Amino acid sequence: MLPLPWPFDRDYMQYALLAGLVVGACAPLVGGFLVQRRMSLLGDGIGHVAFAGVAAGLLLNIWPVWTALAAAVIAALGIEWLRARGQTSGDLALALFFYGGIAAGAVIASRASAVGKPANVLPFLFGSILTVTPGDAIAVCVIGIAIVATVLIAGRAMLAVVMDEESARVAGLPVDALSAALAVLTAVTVVAAMRVVGLLLVAALLVLPIATARLLAKSFRGTLIFGSLVGVIAVVLGLAAARLWGLAPGGSIVLVAVLAFAVVSAVRPMRSAPPSAHDH
Q1: How far apart are the first and last CA of the chain?
Q2: Residue 145 lies in a domain
Q3: Is pLDDT at 29 greater than 90 in this prediction?
Q4: Considering the entire predicted model, what is its pTM?
Q5: Cα dihedral: 165, 274, 227, 162 (round 10)
């Protein structure tokens, strides 16, 4: 690997840094749209369903990332389907999948243990970034490229949809397809961040950097840029703190993001007016 200075002088720290930087930069790109749509907890709900997917993978002897991704995508599309058709409000749809996912995960994990397949789910719940392999890092980079490409290509249209669906329909935009794309993008981001901060904290990387960025930026584009910058800083400082003091890396990264919001909010007032679609 590269001759980086301490604390990133070891190979495992460099793999962790690479995966963390990609997730830290890309998660806020998706989180910006979720916050604008007032669905900040979507990542949390999908993360809990992904936990059921992880448990299913451990039970069936399948790489848990694949089963977590399948469960996350199905949950994301299910939540969007319920919300779009008005069968239940967004928060109730989230609650349905939130509690159902965590309950299913607990049941499946207990079943795996009962049949002699010990289900060590803690690395997936709280992250295991220091055990990232070269293959994991490459997979995260591919996911990151896909996220950035999607935002660059469809970001303006998705912003129009999350701000005002009816106006977007009148303008001739494929609202249902764009909403589904955002839901799937969220699911993919959740699974990518699973190794970095864990499923229980994954929503933090989607939302906290954006919350900080909204205090600094004057446009939606600026919010995404500042959000990615905050995410990257949180990963670097969190990993450094984890190695220096022997802390949990995932929790350290999230705490740095919390600290960033606290510091910025102490010196900058919250902007009351949301960014307009023309700002993107």
Answers
A1: 38
A2: yes
A3: yes
A4: 0.88
A5: 0
